Amino acid sequence: MIALLAAVASCSDANDDIHEPAAGPSILLLVNDAWRRDSVGIYGGGSALTPRLDAAFSRGVVFERATAQSSCTINSAPSMIFGVHPSEHHYRGYEDRVSPRLVSAAEILARNGYDTYALSTNPHVSENNGLAQGFEEFIDPGGWNKTACAEVNGRFLDWLDGRGDRRFFAMLWYTDTHVPYEPPPAYVRRQVPGDLLYLVGDRTARPDGKTLTLEEKVVARALYDASVSYFDDETGKLMDRLESRGVLEDTVVILTSDHGEAFWDRRSPAGRALYGHGSSLYPPQTDIPLLMKGPGLPSARVSAPVQHIDLLPTICDLAGVEPATPYALRGMSAIPLVESRGDGADRPIFTELLLDEYGPYRIRAGRHRGLSVIRNHVLEGEAFTPPLVEREVLHRSARGADRASAVALDSRLDSFASALRLERFPASRAGFLADEMTELERRLANLGYLQ
Asked: CA-CA-CA-CA torsion for 203, 204, 206, 212, nearest 10 degrees?
């Protein structure tokens, strides 16, 4: 079943439904779920996996230090869409629904003459959870069947047909690099060592909760890399088709992820080797790619830190419209950083993992000048009073940092938590019907969320 969901911004006046055509470029936001930054060649790793994207965005903007607002879709997706922190949108479990008082980039652009469209393949990014606000069309493919990138792109191109030169804001949410790792067989053969192909199966495609041998871990990572390679090919084809239709010359393309993915490359404070996402705020789960190209944008590499809450103001800046919200946005447009102006190069980045369904987890972290401070209040279901604090040097530039720098970042993390207006936008229960809940649980189990 395909559910077509519409979310139209409320209007204070009947005339608000009549908009002048948008003056800015079209904007296409591509979100590839669970995509590690170091699997993208343009960042210095995995060059064999992403040749199409490397070539396309070599003439665009590369944000070298983009950080997810969290390490799970539930927390990060609303931060991307509404520009607020997880503590503010309160989406912590799959039955939560964010407040309709939050304002999305889609709502703002729709009011300024943009057609808005979204297609999500992740059940956590849904109308039931309140994330369709502002999208004239929000498509959820229904039952989980690992909707592939090629199908998502085909549906989007069908939507574009016959639209003429009307400006659009579209968000495509892919799960090609999300567990289960099930790329087409040709990509599997390309990445998995021949003598280990016999290990391709459910254990390596869905490794979470399983004790894998070293060889099985190699295969699991190879299947992930094969999924990256498949996404690269299909996204390259999408760019080609948009260019052949004359759409690309008037469109800004933004490519990113909602979080990363760990492959046993970090250990939790309890000593557990971490796999997947949504269990820590370490770099493998929070370092993400953020690439941008389109009319008016230079070829540039930006070393200043950026984060998910910057997406809404950046999208509005690209469209040439005010990010009109009834509350102060937490993020900032990244365009001044691209143009080497503004003062964002030295700001701290704050992240949160606030989950009820899995764990539970209550973790906050701050990053500044190559230092990281992580405060674990509840970790893997275990509470800490006072919190378990971890301090780490993330970049070589910070190796000479003294204790005073770490204490100062600790203090800023305290100030960040105190400044959040936690009561402003409380979430509600999504109110799923019994059959909808059964279907959602099935989809989540197939995604590996439920064991």
From this structure: 70
| Longest alpha-carbon distance in the chain | 67
CATH 3.40.50.1950 fits 3-346+426-447, yes or no: no
- Is the separation of the CB atoms in 359 and 378 below 8 Å? yes
Residue 365 and residue 413 in contact, taking contact as beta carbons nearer than 8 Å: yes
Task: Enumerate the β-bridge partners of residue 26.
Answer: 251
120-142 burial by CB neighbour count: b if 16+ within 10 A, else e? bbbbbbbbbbbbbbbbbbbbbbe
What is the SS3 string spanning 93-161? CCCEECCCCCCCHHHHHHCCCCEEEEEECCCCCCCCCCCCCCCCEEEECCCCCCCCHHHHHHHHHHHHC
Of 76, 89, 181, 179, whose CA–CA distance to 125 is shortest?
76
Q: What angle do CA 304, 307, 313 make, to 5 degrees?
A: 100
| Cβ burial 243-266 (10 Å sphere, 16+ → b, else e) | eeeebbeebbbbbbbbbbbbbbeb
Sequence-distant contacts of 378-381: CB under 8 A, at least 24 apart: 379/268, 379/269, 379/270, 380/268, 380/270, 380/272, 380/279
pTM above 0.85, yes or no: yes
How far, in Å, CA of 424 to CA of 90, rounded? 10
Q: Where are the domains of the chain?
A: 3-346+426-447, 359-420
CA–CA distance, 36 with 26 (Å, rounded to integer) = 27
- Give 108-153 pLDDT, tens digit per residue: 999 999 999 999 999 999 998 999 999 999 998 654 567 899 999 9
* pLDDT tens figures, 159-195: 999 788 899 999 999 999 999 999 999 999 999 999 9
